[in-house]
Amino acid sequence: MGRFKLLYVHGDMEIDNNLVENAAMYSFMASCKRNGVDEREWLSDIFDRVQGIMHKEIFKLLPSNWAKYRGQL
Length: 73
Hints:
Elements: H1 3-12, H2 17-34, H3 39-49, H4 63-69
Organism: Nitritalea halalkaliphila LW7
Protein name: Transposase IS66
């Protein structure tokens, strides 16, 4: 289920949180593939960094930006 369809369904009815979490993870993995990022390397790196990053810089952890900002984090 795509991100936008999931948001539409989520607004109309109650759904299992696992479905939302799985959809988010699949979306991140697809974004990694689309941007030529190794999924395991990305996950390992962001899990190490997410606790210490400032809220306004969280966009740097997205797969589309990760390679560009990795050395600056």
